[in-house]
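fwd from M.: "can u put these together and see what the complex looks like"

so here's what she sent:
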Amino acid sequence: MRSLALWFYLVVMLSAPRLVVAERSDTTVARVEAKPAVSQPVVFPDMETRLGIAGVGFVVLGGLAALLNAKRRRADVKAGIV
Amino acid sequence: MEALEQTPQKLYQWLDERIPLTPVVEFLSCKTVPRQKHSFWYLFGGLTLFFFVVQVVTGILLALYYKPTPELAHESVRKIINEVPHGWLIRSIHSWAANLMIASLFIHMFSVFFLRAYRKPRELMWLSGVLLMFLVFGFGFTGYLLPWDTTAYFATLIGTEVPKTLPIIGDWGVSLLKGEEEVGSETLTRMYIIHVTILPLLTVFIISFHVLLSQLLGSSVPIGTAEKKPSIPFFPNFLLRDFIAWTFGACVLLVVAVLKPWELGPVADPYASAPVGIKPEWYFLPLYQSLRMVPATILGVSGELIVNLMVVVLSIGWFLIPFVDVQANKGVRSRLFTVIGLGVALYLIITIFLAYAT
């Protein structure tokens, strides 16, 4: 239970600030609102970066699934479910 | 160190003196889930709920930057993707989780149907579940317009024309939704308000009712299926199984959201013509394909009107399944309803396939 709580704490503390706060100023907002509606291209990170993110996510979530499964096995043995 | 270890117990005692937690904890401690060969299907309800929670969290993060006006909507979404840290990922997760939620919802609904889990005393769970399905479709429809790109604009323009053929409520319903003659500023504002306030409030209320019933009534054992002994305790054994399923769901979501990020088309131009081959999202394709397949008129009656009336009648019929399938309440699995369920599922799959293929 403690290892799970520590895991969640680390993930939340490392990712939360970057998700909520964007680095922008009021002048940027004013410039955006003054512009006419023009199609600008959207740019995603390159495939290598995305593969890295997917890989890290896969490993982290896979680790979490393994932790939970180990806990489930212990709980099943304790409850007499074979 | 000892004080730190005792903190959770002290916190529980403090809360229990102010909110009666002990009866709830005792109830959950005694609750069990039947073990039988179809127990796997019990996980999809919780998985749908998990994807809904992901929608709420990512939706709130997107709403911090989104601007619901035709002049700024597209640019604000572009900024979310290009300039907000991880904005592209949050938006991609939000869009993909919507699709995965609907897929999981369909699996959950059809598994409940085929296992006859809607029979007495779970009729209200079925009714609230089907209502939730329509609310989720509402989320999909209203959210689709918000990026204000070409596809979103014309898909909404076409989508809001379809219900007009319904007698009495058609014109009134569409004008309520659009707020003006054409899809414009009023429409975007209304779709945004419906998407972020009205639908979430209704959905949270009905989900709470649905989950409460599921806790009070427990899981149904399919007709004619032997229950293995012993049953699984809900806490912590079945809940851990739920968490494992949610982790797999999160993994699938993250991988598709990262490897296939949700695109943003060019900004909508109301004066341009609709793009060739424009199609709605896959969960609206059965209706779209049905409208394409039906002739313009059948015996002098508009084909579109016939399809709309069929949808209304079939939806009402689907709602009333627990009350129509009287054999299920007697513990008999009716072959007719199995055929009906298979027919509906196959029709949905085939029309989705045809819509993509043609």
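replying to her w this: The two ends of chain A are 22 Å apart (CA to CA).
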